[in-house]
Amino acid sequence: MRIALFTETFLPKVDGIVTRLSHTVDHLQRLGDQVLVFSPEGGLSEYKGARINGVPGFPLPLYPELKLALPRPSIRKELELFQPDLIHIVNPAVLGLGGLYYAKSLGIPLVASYHTHLPKYLEHYGLGMLEGVLWELLKLMHNQAEINLVTSTAMQDALESHGIERVDVWQKGVDVELFDPSLASGDMRSHLTQGSPDSPLLLYVGRLSAEKEIDRIKPVLAAIPNARLALVGDGPYRADLEKIFEGTPTFFAGYMTGQTLGAAFASADAFVFPSRTETLGLVLLEAMAAGCPVIAANAGGIPDIVTDGVNGYLFNPQDENGAIAATQRLLHETAERNTLRQNARAEAERWGWAAATQQLQQFYGRVMAGRSLPRAA
């Protein structure tokens, strides 16, 4: 099958969506499909055998790391040369609208997927009054697709409750070879604790942005004697967070990738994730694969991954003391913490990228089969 993938973000940017898409492209190519990626220009022209068509863009004012790439006529020419069997638009916003337009104008089957819970992000940028309008725009776009894929049952419920049709869950995936408990390292632990490896080590990995609510980790850090916090990642909220955590034993580690990131997960005592806006929380699966116990808000798609008391702890996001109590319990109960580590790894092993991509192929096949059926009179 020949697939044209339109995405608002791709390599070399680092985030959960890019991680999912890069593994998906890799496995689709391995399985014999051909993929053409349309994304904001990032310097890459090829990835794992798939050609990348970089579209010039400009930084998003509220989030400079993201580029807005405007559709242009050359896209149509590229599509006509590639002759895709199907177009897949990811988080359609600007470039994705081009994918939608060309799918309709060229009569190509359309699949859409929803990875970022944008309506809930608005309140963190003082734009909460626009949530209703955004849902209407999302409904207008997504209902043009023959199937809409989400990454958790919570997001399926959210989209369907706002009138979005033909919604199905695209299962989670994680690289269980890259993220492994064996990567635990004394040197990494010393680095993340800034020379205090015997202190309890709390870890956060992900975008440093307002909607991730990283500031909610500060009371947890304050409640654990001698604890250290490492924030791995970067983003538009970093300067604010540096002020918020000023005077605390917090280390801003910047971006990490590959085995270095795997070692960070495996070397920490707890992965603390306070965000209430996650559609899935891929980074949680990565932590669990590395055997790092997870403490996360009971919200969004997170309960699809974390079972409270079995492979991590969930806390009520409305309870200011919930994350504190869960972290204290985790660090105090050594035997229970080891059981959580083992169960977390076992859960992650169920969700390899190959299986997730094969399921995506089945969705693609369903759309193609539907297109081949005769239309009702």
Question: What gap, in angstroms, lies between the N and C termini?
Answer: 29 Å
Report strand order across the widest sheet.
3-4-2-1-7-8-9-10
The assigned structural class equals alpha/beta
Low-confidence stretches: none
State the CATH superfamily name of the largest domain: Glycogen Phosphorylase B
CATH class of the largest domain: Alpha Beta
Total count of helical runs of at least 4 residues: 14
Helix content: 25-40%
Work out the number of β strands: 16
Q: What is the string of SSEs from the N terminus onward?
A: EHEEEEEHEHEHHEHEHEHEHEHEHEEHHH
How would you describe the overall organization of this protein?
The protein is of the alpha/beta class and 377 residues long. The chain folds into 2 domains: 2-173 and 352-372, Glycogen Phosphorylase B (Rossmann fold); 181-348, Glycogen Phosphorylase B (Rossmann fold, 3-Layer(aba) Sandwich), CATH 3.40.50. It contains 14 helices and 16 strands. Helix 1 crosses helix 14 (353-372), helix 7 crosses helix 10 (258-267) and helix 11 crosses helix 13 (334-348). It starts with a strand and ends in a 5-residue tail after the last helix. The model has no long low-confidence stretch (mean pLDDT 91).
